[in-house]
Amino acid sequence: MVFATVIIVGSFFLIVGTIVSKGFPALSWEMLSEIPSGDFYMGGEGGILNSILGSLYIAAGSSLLALIISVPIVIYINMYLKKSSWMGNLTRLGYDVLFGMPSIVYGAFGFTLMIYLGMRASLLGGIVTVTLLIIPIMVRTMDEVIRTVPKELFDASYSLGATRLETSRVVLKQVAPGILTAVLLAFGRGIGDVASVMFTAGFSNDIPKSLEDPASTLPLAVFNQLSSPVEEVQSRAYAAALVLTIIVLLISISARVLSKRLSKNKI
Amino acid sequence: MNIRLIKDKLAGSTMLILTLASVLLAILVGWGLYYKSLPLLEENSVWDLLSSSVWKPSKGEFGFFAFIMGTLWVTGIAIVIALPLCLLCAIFISEYAHPRLRKIVVPVVDLLSGIPPVVFGVWGVLFVVPLIEDYIAPVFVDYPMGYSVLAGGIVLGVMIFPLIISLLLEVFSAVPKEMRDASLSMGATQWQTVKFVLLRKSKPGIIVSVVLAVSRAFGETIAVLMVCGSVIMVPGSVFDPGYPLPALIANNYGEMLSAPEYESALLFAAFLLFVIIFLFNAISRIVLGRIKRKIE
Amino acid sequence: MTFETPHISVQNLNLYYGANHALKNINIDIPNKKVTSFIGPSGCGKTTLLKTFNRLHDSSLEVRVEGKVLLDGENIYDKNAEVTSIRKKMGLLSQRPFPLPMSIYDNIAYGPRIHGERDRHKLDEIVERHLKDVALWPEVKDRLKSPASRLSIGQQQRLCLARGLAVNPEIILGDEPTSALDPKSTQKIEELFIELKEKYTIVLVTHILRQARRVSDYVAYIYNGEIIEFAPTEELLLNPKQKLTQEYVKGFVS
To answer: How far, in Å, CA of B192 to CA of B229, rounded?
Structure first.
């Protein structure tokens, strides 16, 4: 058992160690602050700022959008529906399926839908697809958190004559740390996923200026550069992977810290 | 009726619509993929598509057998690696580990879960592939290749560690402490308590964890794609390269829209993934319900 | 036993929990501005009965309620009955205190606020008055903004009582409200009940016979989902008529 634990914990440090040792030497200020020049993918000048920003835009936009959609859904299945009603069960099954659906399926579906609607690969397309991808993550995580709220807290609010809507505000307050964790979890998923944005967000050497512009993303930059035969480009892929890892780890860690801080009013 | 109640009702119906719409999305995705794969299905029987391993898009021959086997190999290896390790690790964390140690291990597992697939892929290319090529494979085969279903399985296995562990920990924490105390106070050893109380009590939860892990592993695209070789063949051993379904879509979709039949074939692959995951979830829910009723 | 103007009148109430017939043909009148206690072994249905009074079973799919509960003569299970205004009339104290996840002040102000009170000064006044009602004011007046969860369990329970009083209920429902408290806090709550019955009708679920005797005017003995006996406190505890009641209170020496 100790052995198994060591392997699992060790694998994390192994991965981070590998990425740091390969990526750090290739990392430079130029990489972070400039957009690619024309022959960047042949080993020319430039950086990956476009991809960093593209990823942040997509992850932030879709997290926000998904939050706005998920919270009402979670409230509805927990506060408005009776316990273990068929509708609640059906919704949860639906979300299990959506949760398990591979991001490549979202990507393919999103792209098909975009063609149907006459949209081209763009920041908006990426945001919408990633939103679809992370809604199930948010709904499931928040649903689990809300289900841990003791029934008596609901009753306490109800017995003061509060409506379900008013009570749900109390409940949301109670689970605020959980919601934050869910959002950051989804943000992390959104920023790191390639398969969903591969076709839908497009690719561009510029920083997107509007929702209709195509946007490059960090994971895609890693993926594309890694398959390059030029060694210098490959090492840039490692550097980009390092940047991505750092961003994601920062998010994970701040999620933990913030959720602890927010717990102070919790019963 | 007062305004608060109207608000409550109004909010309720808005949320109902939103909920229904989102569930409908699941159906819409399934239906959309099915609709798109119709052209392919009209030409070929489902059985032929699934059992043939001839893949010649230019001649209009689409056999998915190699891809399905590729997916099964990689997923199978990942589960074989991850499940025992994670089970032991989760038991250790929840039953044996000192709280201070737990406070270190659990966050690390959480951090691992946040690492993006593409980073796992890079790690696979940099570490797992050379490891297999230089050290493991030469022991067993004559012409060692790093890019193989084994590499895919290892990377995927590590990827699903955190998912399985966090699910298992949740399952274990649902077993009341009193139940363990009852067993321990009868003179059972810690391990006997784990075996007869903890594992027995959490069996349904373990099953569900595995199902969720399998369905996650099934669809993982990028990381596997980067290390498994992408050679269209039915893998004969763990050292052979493979070509899983998601990789097929990722590598070819987007470029092949000019050939409607090819697009249809790729969306059929997506549809297959959808159906498999749908069945997995539905069956696990039914099984869970049965087991729960039995326990009660 | 009947009363001329009962505050709550339960008529032919049956409650099913799935296939389980949890309350069987309950008929009872709860008198106005008195303390009525439900006693009985655990699982007998006393808490279940209490919760039917403010329809807290509504959110459970398995629970089916038949019969009537008249509150001031109106059936709260009527189709047109409006559940939030019914609940507003009744404050609930649960077994363990459950402060809302907010500050002490906001806990008390929560009820008045949702019922439309926005005036800052009035809220201040309401908070102060009800904290005084439960003798909590001196202890917390300097830290009204701190989280309610930081109070001791005993203080939390009094806070919950004050929170319930702040919406001007007519009835207080207590579901073994002292079961999580230490003897001193228990004593405080009991004293409060005796004070509060001047203004409120109080219904109490308890398994402590001494407590029932100390605070209540009437006691109902419930067994296996049925009301076995309902009588003035001293009569039921010291001189029960029914054989089942006799067995239960046997050994109760005052």
So the answer is: 44
Neighbours, chain C (3 or more CB pairs < 8 A): A, B
Q: Give the up-direction half-sphere exposure of residue B34: CA atoms within 13 A in the CB hemisphere.
A: 8
Q: How close, in Å, is residue A210 to chain B by CA atoms? A: 23
A128 Cβ under 8 Å from any chain B Cβ: no
Q: Is A242 exposed, middle or buried (0-12, 13-18, 19+ CB in 10 A)?
A: buried
B198: domain range?
64-259
Q: In this structure, is residue B44 part of a structural domain? A: no
Q: Is the ipTM of this complex over 0.95?
A: no
Residues of A in contact with B122 (CB under 8 A): 18-19, 22, 222, 226, 237-238, 241
Query: Quick check: is C157 in a domain?
Result: yes
Angle between helices A103-117 and B3-43 (to 10 degrees): 90
Contact A185, C117 (CB under 8 A): no
* Domain annotation covers residue B20: no
> Would an 8 Å CB–CB cutoff place C67 in contact with chain A?
no
CB contact C116 to A (< 8 Å): no
Residue B267 belongs to a domain = no
Domain span at residue C119 reads 102-168
- The reply to whether B5 touches chain C by the CB within 8 Å rule is yes
pLDDT one digit per residue (tens) for chain A, 267 residues: 888 888 888 889 999 988 888 888 888 787 777 777 666 666 666 778 888 898 999 999 999 999 999 999 999 998 888 877 888 888 888 888 888 888 888 888 888 888 888 888 888 989 999 999 999 989 988 998 888 888 888 888 988 888 889 999 999 988 888 888 889 888 988 898 888 888 888 777 778 888 888 888 888 888 888 877 777 788 888 888 999 999 999 988 888 888 777 665 554
Q: For A234, which residue in chain B has the nearest alpha carbon?
A: B122
pLDDT tens for C10-67 read: 999 999 988 889 999 999 999 999 999 999 888 888 999 999 998 888 877 788 899 9
Residues of B in contact with C84 (CB under 8 A): 4-5
The count of structural domains within chain B is 1
Show which subunits contact A, needing at least 3 CB pairs below 8 angstroms: B, C
Chain CA centroid to CA B50, Å = 21
Q: Give residue limits of the domains in chain A.
A: 2-265
Residue B277 forms part of a structural domain: no
State the Cα–Cα distance between residues C92 and C107, nearest whole angstrom.
14
Total domains in chain C come to 1
Domain contains C52: no
CATH superfamily assigned to domain A2-265: MetI-like (1.10.3720.10)
Q: CB C149 to CB A156 under 8 A?
A: no
Q: How many CB pairs under 8 A join A and C?
A: 90
